[in-house]
Amino acid sequence: MAAAAKMYILTARRVFLYCSSTKTLKLNTGATIPVIGLGTWQSPDEECYNAVLSALHAGYRHIDTARIYRNEEAVGKAIAQYLKESGTSRDKLFITTKLWCSEVQDPEKALKESLERLKLEYVDLYLMHWPVSMVNRGELVPKNAEGTTEIIPFEKWNYVETYKIMQKLYKEGLTKAIGISNFNIPKIDYLLAHPGVEVVPACLQVEIHPYLPQFDLVEYCTKKEILVECYSPLGSTGAPLLKDPALIKLAEKYNVSPACIAISWAVARDTIPLPKSVHEERIVSNLKIVDLAAEDVSTVNEVSKTTAKRLVKPDWGVDIFGDSAKL
Ligand code: NDP
């Protein structure tokens, strides 16, 4: 840990260590993953470049991007610049990108194109972004005349076929690990039970924050040795989470921000938060966590009992999040 990143906070009742997280977790591949990653959704090119470069200089070693964010080139440019400026080697960083839904029938082409945009020889984690297959007509999100997203029916192509090809990319070394995103328990069960699926996903990336703690899903993944990444850990853009009275009270107790409480809570659960910011000050502070007392983890756990909320709900996600949990 960099000495400058360490800070003790003295409050009326006790002293808290508030410091840049260098915690890592072990993937089922044997590799390690830095527990806090920088999110880059809704970070347009120039902002994204500056954000990634600032993050790397601040000590982040984990960046999360995706084909659909349309910023892989900016992420790649910032990584190259950082490696040049700092003399750090590529293998010290953990870079994730994601396979978009309209490219699921040819993940090899999609990953090679992502690597070209990122100017990398491999990524550390390649995620299937959604268990959804969209028609490929050249647009990333194809719409029909009614404005609905055009989906390939499950019987014609589904995520198991896509995953089997992703296994090949993993074995070839184009990605050091493969994983899934926006899957629920029935879908993971279906995937794992399928003949030809030999590689257990290293990670599942889903929406998780104090308003959507996903206790069952986290417990299930822990049993299967799948690490859980939390997207929208701060409640995403403009969310009321950071104004929640319980989080504010804990922030006052630890003398930190509510964002720090949300991130520290995710880290305390051995999950991997991916806070996004394009502001340097926030980028720096989002890497700093406090060691929450067990009773305070429980307090945050309770928040969803009164205010449960899913924030990311695209039209193609309806079946995934519905109670019927269709395959
Ligand atoms: P977050 O929960 O990370 O929240 C981001 C918002 O919070 C932005 O508006 C940001 O503003 C603001 N913010 C950041 N830090 C602070 C702070 N310290 N105090 C107050 N406000 C703050 O939302 P995301 O939805 O972006 O999720 C994080 C990442 O997860 C994404 O960027 C992406 O990488 C991934 N993701 C993956 C999805 C998937 O389907 N797999 C779906 C959604 C997200 P500003 O930038 O102006 O600072």
Number of domains: 1
Structural category: alpha/beta
Mean pLDDT: 92
Fraction of residues in helix: 25-40%
Strand residues, percent: 15-25%
- Overall strand count: 13
Name of the CATH superfamily? NADP-dependent oxidoreductase domain
Distance between the termini: 44 Å
Tell the overall outline: globular
List low-confidence stretches.
none
Enzyme class: oxidoreductase
Keywords: Oxidoreductase
Binding site for substrate: 129
Protein name: 2-dehydropantolactone reductase
Overview of the molecule:
The chain is an alpha/beta fold and 327 residues long. It has a single domain, classed as TIM Barrel, CATH 3.20.20. It is 36% helix and 16% strand. An 8-stranded parallel beta sheet has the order 5-6-7-8-9-10-11-12. Strand 8, helix 4 and strand 9 form a beta-alpha-beta unit. Helix 1 runs parallel beside helix 2, helix 2 packs across helix 3 and helix 7 crosses helix 8. It starts with 5 loop residues before the first strand and ends in a 6-residue tail after the last helix. The mean pLDDT is 92. It binds NADPH dihydro-nicotinamide-adenine-dinucleotide phosphate. NADPH dihydro-nicotinamide-adenine-dinucleotide phosphate (NDP) binds next to helix 9.
In brief, what are we looking at here?
This protein has a single domain, classed as Alpha-Beta Barrel (TIM Barrel). Helix content is 36%, strand content 16%. The chain has eleven helices and 13 strands.
